[in-house]
Amino acid sequence: MQKPQPTRPDWVSASVVLLLSAPVAVGLAGTLLPAAGFLPALGGHQVSLTPVRDLLEAPAIWTSAALSAGTGLAATALSLLVVLLFVATLHGTRPFGVLSRLMSPLLSVPHAAAAFGLAFLIAPSGFLVRLFSPWATGFERPPDLLILNDPLGLAMTFGLVIKEVPFLFLMALAALPQTNADQLSKAAQNLGYSKTSAFFRVVLPVLYPQIRLPIIAVLAYSTSVVDVAQILGPTTPAPLAPRILGWMADPDPAMRFQASAGAVLQCLLSGGAILLWLAGERVVRGLLQASTLRGKRRRREHTARCIGFILTAGTVFPAILGLAVLGLWSISKGWWFPSALPSGFTISHWADLGKTGTEVIWQTLVIAVSVTLVCLILVISVLESRTRMKPSGDGTLRKLVFVPLLIPQVSFLFGLQILSVLVGIDGSLLGVAMAHAIFVLPYMYLAFADPWNHLDPRYQQVAMSFGASKWKVLFRIRLPLLMRPLLVTLAIGIAVSVGQYLPTIMIGAGRVTTVTTESLALSSGGNRSLIAVYGMLQLLLPLMFFAAAAIIPALLHRDRSGLRV
Amino acid sequence: MPRTGLTLDNIRISLDQKELIAIDRHVPPGRILTVMGASGSGKTSLLNMVAGFLDPKFKATGRIILGGKDITCLPPQDRHVGLMFQRPLLFPHMSVVENLMFAVPAGIKGRRARAALAEKSLKDVSLDGMGERDPATLSGGQQTRVALMRLLLADPKALLLDEPFSSLDQELRAEIRSLVFGMARERALPVLLVTHDPDDAVAADDHLFKL
Question: Residue A38 above 70 pLDDT?
């Protein structure tokens, strides 16, 4: 008799999931207790409702909450709509190839850098107004318009959309091959449906469940975002999350209690937005189903394509143009309104970075590189242990890994901050690195799991039939074959770490500064060139690693055409 | 229990209560057992079970005896059964000679000795001088010959062939087939061949098991 393989519990995966979820759970608890008035370190010894009462009496608190929910839901819905229309109308065409090649690098741009770029583009004194002034608009000085920081949060919503479209697009693109989309679509087109109708009627119902978690992650992030809100969002009042951060920094301990109550409200608000989204999903599904059964075949394919292209281009090009303007500002010598271009170029803003700047860059890199390397080892351990256990799928693990991305950062970072003070790692590189890991690990796992699982298993079977040990198979066969996605995963980890604002500022306690926190600190100062330099650094530091990820495999495997993509 | 050859002792493989294959055969050294059947008939599951790669969702009973030793529960790397697939599956990140050296047993020490064995096996299939080549630049027939020599260098006790000739064109197929069968007979290796090509079965001219 062949003994059934003993099903041992997968300790490696279990401990990594614990490593991810424990800080979230502890952090949430550490937020909840002060919200109920209990935090002995700050003199709160008994449970009381004062923090909640203070929060509810804060001026315009419900406006802030409505702004957070509204901008977050709008940004998520718009991003998804753009991505779906783009894939539905243009998949397999030339413009699709062009736009998707432009989108992948945008994914690695930190939110703050993209938001600064957009601000420099659309502000009343920004590049677009300059381009048309004074010859078309007659403006000799910047018009007095509230384009940035508008009270409805339109600029902030747009700033979120230009960053979330590339993310959702790449998630959809990764999910498409698993849905058999091409055959489904062909079958429907064969029945007389246009390509676009076919997508929404037969492909989307299969595709959507595959991208639901990334969409919810976008929603949780957008309803609680801080850095984009500080750059582009309304100020009187600001959305909830940036206000919470302001209260936390307040020297008055009572405000700290109010902040923790705010963090709990933020959690409820994002949770409510998610529930609302899930309800909306049902409504849309019902409507789509009804229209599918009616059998109507819309054939205005050309119009659909135009709309799909315009919407996508309308988010991709402002993002790219904004970053170009950011680059110009970082090397401009005098750029007065209404000139469309700087009067001259200089590297002095970069040279002026000096000692402080070098220190900031150094801290950014030390944190990013160490976090990424540790997370890579964890990701490989999980994948290798799962491969050895031969489980039938990675569905559950994939969901668990998403947990830290589904809960508003500010809601559990508040508790983690208290914990870091108790342990004594607040304001240290180690503390900040550990906080970054909570967000870096999920993205690295998501990036590396697919290439790992798609590697032809027969390579390792052949190697094992030669008597090669499991370790030899891992280091001599699997990792070398996966070198390209491995290096890309490393670069993604670096980009995620460099882009972290809230964990850095909260756990770093002002003593750890990265290029992202530095650029936000400068944002109120109005020195555009210096902001631009730090914005460009957010872009360039990850870019170096992406470049290395492209060049190293090309050099190492230059004689191996079987590995060329 | 026979001390030599490969014994499939009362093997049954099923998936979701449905029996895919039931086989009880002995393959003496140097002989070929051909298992024929349409795709989805469970012949690949049989190979996976013998090699140790059967997905746990399949239920398998029975014993596999190789050279008098029960290997049913051994991990794949301790079974000493050589696998050959439809594609040659040369490791694309290694050169031809590195592919061969990867298979040479660890007991043979020293880079030079290992390289010499690899070079000699290339010569055996008239591919001498190809060692430094990128495997992707070889023709299909050359790649299959390298894959065969790589397999034999690992010193297997049995060969498992999963339609190894189906990707080759007609003329090449006969040539490679007789090369593989010849080498197996010369080394007295029991061979388990699964295929849906009747020509393979005719060429093997040995025991046939139809599904």
Answer: yes
Residues 6+ apart with CB under 8 A from B122: B96, B97, B100, B128, B129, B130, B131, B146, B149
Which pLDDT belongs to residue A392? 54
A558 chain-B contacts, CB cut-off 8 A: none
Per-domain boundaries in chain B: 6-210
Domains in chain A, number: 2
First to last CA, chain B: 25
A552/chain B closest Cα distance in angstroms: 14
Question: Alpha-carbon distance A178 to A211, whole Å?
Answer: 12
Among A211, A150, A203, A164, residue whose Cα is nearest residue A180? A203
Q: Is residue A44 part of a domain?
A: no
Decide if pLDDT at A527 tops 90. Answer: no
Q: Does A471 touch chain B (CB under 8 A)?
A: no
- Phi, psi of B175, deg, nearest 5: -65, -50
Which has the closest alpha carbon to B173: B140, B127, B136? B140
Task: For residues A313 and A353, state if they share a domain.
Answer: no
Give B22 to chain A, closest Cα distance, Å: 14
Would you give the DSSP letter of residue A468? Answer: -
| Listed residue (A416, A419, A425, A441) closest to A497, CA to CA | A441
> In terms of residue numbers, what domain contains A358?
10-38+347-565
Residue A561: its chain B contacts at CB < 8 A?
Answer: 134, 136-137
Find the distance separating the first CA and the last CA of chain A, reported in whole Å: 46
What's the CATH architecture for B6-210? 3-Layer(aba) Sandwich (3.40)
pTM, two decimal places: 0.86
Instruction: Give yes or no for residue A176 having a pLDDT over 50.
Output: yes
Is the pLDDT at A365 greater than 90? The verdict is yes
A531, A401 in Cβ contact below 8 A? Answer: no
Query: Do A123 and A210 belong together in one domain?
Result: yes
- Mean pLDDT is highest, among A47-61, A307-321, B196-210, for A307-321
Q: Which of B57, B136, B153 shows the shortest C-beta gap to A562?
A: B136
CB pairs under 8 A between A and B: 95
Which domain CATH number covers A298? 1.10.3720.10
Is residue A1 scored above 50 in pLDDT? no
pLDDT for residue A95 is more than 70: yes
Q: Which of these three, A338, A361, A385, is where a domain ends?
A: A338
User: Domain for residue A111, yes or no?
Assistant: yes
CB contact under 8 A, B63 and A463: no
Give residues with Cβ within 8 angstroms of A162, minimum separation 6.
A106, A114, A118, A315, A316, A318, A319, A322
A521: left (phi over 0), alpha (psi -120 to 50) or beta: alpha
For residues A26 and A119, membership in a common domain is answered with no
Q: Tokens 């290439």 map to which residue?
A: A451
Q: A371 and A331 share a domain?
A: no
Q: What is the mean pLDDT of chain A?
A: 89
Give the residue with greater pLDDT, B137 vs A42: B137
Contact A465 B151 (CB under 8 A): yes
Give the tens place of pLDDT for each residue, A474-518: 999 999 999 999 999 999 999 999 999 999 999 998 899 999 999
CB B70 within 8 A of CB B64: yes
Q: State the nearest Cα–Cα gap between A32 and chain B, in angstroms.
A: 44
- Work out the number of other CB atoms within 10 angstroms of the CB of residue A513: 18
Confidence of residue A26 (pLDDT cuts 50, 70, 90): very high
Counting residues of chain A whose pLDDT is more than 90, the rounded percentage is: 56
